[in-house]
């Protein structure tokens, strides 16, 4: 399970010699120790996919499809984003999906699902 907590403590105003002040605010972020990797094949929706993942309070990172994937313990899944290519095209991008599936769950969207 991936969980992220955001907690804000607002302290009473700290007054300076003029009687004014600025509220002190402390932000305590839970350490994000788990992440989702989004492999970008050039889709116009990659940023929207990342936003949806982040809105679910899950850390995600977008990387180009050709960058080698490091299977570290914090990696909990990979999303293969779309592409303007067809898998039938000669110069279509390709990755070793089997290696990903052996290590983590994989979600393919549009081109990534082909």
Please characterize this protein's 3D structure.
The protein has about 110 residues and is an alpha/beta fold. It has a single domain (about 30-114), classed as Rossmann fold (3-Layer(aba) Sandwich). The chain contains two helices and eight strands. The strands form three sheets. It has a four-stranded parallel sheet, sandwiched between helices. Strands 1-4 form a two-stranded antiparallel ribbon. Residues about 1-15 and about 20-30 have low confidence and may be disordered.
SSE layout and pairing:
Elements lengths: L5 E5 L3 E2 L5 E2 L2 E5 L5 E6 L5 H10 L3 E6 L10 E6 L16 H7 L2 E3 L6
Parallel strand pairs: 5-6, 5-7, 7-8
Antiparallel strand pairs: 1-4, 2-3
Features:
globular, 4-stranded parallel β-sheet, 2 helices, Rossmann fold, disordered N terminus, 114 residues, alpha/beta, two-stranded antiparallel ribbon
Number of DSSP strand runs: 8
Major beta-sheet overview: 4 strands, parallel
What CATH architecture label applies? Answer: 3-Layer(aba) Sandwich
SSE-based structural type? alpha/beta
Q: In one word, what is the shape? A: globular
Q: Can you identify the CATH class?
A: Alpha Beta
- The total count of helices amounts to 2
Task: Provide a brief overview of the structure.
By secondary structure, this protein is α/β, with parallel strands linked by helices. Helix content is 15%, strand content 31%. It has a single domain (32-113), classed as Class I glutamine amidotransferase (GATase) domain (Rossmann fold, 3-Layer(aba) Sandwich).
């Amino acid at each position: 399970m991936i969980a992220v907590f955001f907690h804000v403590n607002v302290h009473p105003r700290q007054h300076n010699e003029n009687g004014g002040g600025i509220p002190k605010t402390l932000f305590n972020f839970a350490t994000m120790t788990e992440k989702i990797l989004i492999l970008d094949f050039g889709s116009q929706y990659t940023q929207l996919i990342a936003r949806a993942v982040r809105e679910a309070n899950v850390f995600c990172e977008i990387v180009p499809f050709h960058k080698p994937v490091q299977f570290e313990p914090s990696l909990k899944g990979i999303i293969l984003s779309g592409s303007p290519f067809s898998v039938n095209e000669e110069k279509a991008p390709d990755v070793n999906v089997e290696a990903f599936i052996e290590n983590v769950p994989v979600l393919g969207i549009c081109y990534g699902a082909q």
